[in-house]
Write a structure and sequence with these properties.
The structure is a single chain. By secondary structure, this protein is mainly alpha-helical. It is 44% helix and 11% strand. The longest helix is centred in the middle third of the chain and has 14 residues. The radius of gyration is 16 Å and the shape is globular.
Amino acid sequence: MILPKITPVACATLIAVAAAPLAAQSAQTAAPTDAGLAADTLTDGRTMQAIAQLQSELDLHPGDPAILINLGIAQAQSGREQDARISFEAAMRSRDVIELETANGTSTDSRRLARHALAMLDRGEFRPARRSAEQFTLRD
């Protein structure tokens, strides 16, 4: 399966829904809701709020790959690239492999999505675009 090109903007809302698990779930509480994945918070650009929300959710659902991927996205967008790498790698190592639906409507498994996010991180695709002086209005 070839992943579609996911832009950094689309990646901000990468996980919309966690679907049925591909592997047996551990004896955890119920999977996080869409709100627990902070997709709306990430879409709105509130990365610090998303990080706090996702870390709290991770306390309730340790090792959940959907939470880890969105946490990594939020961390990467806030410039915390080493933390993002740790989150993406933890999602890849998770014993739970779940089918995830991305914000653009495609589905893939959590390990593949985490690898894709790591590659985006390596290419610097989460970094904000540099602005040139020509983009701003100046007074004479």
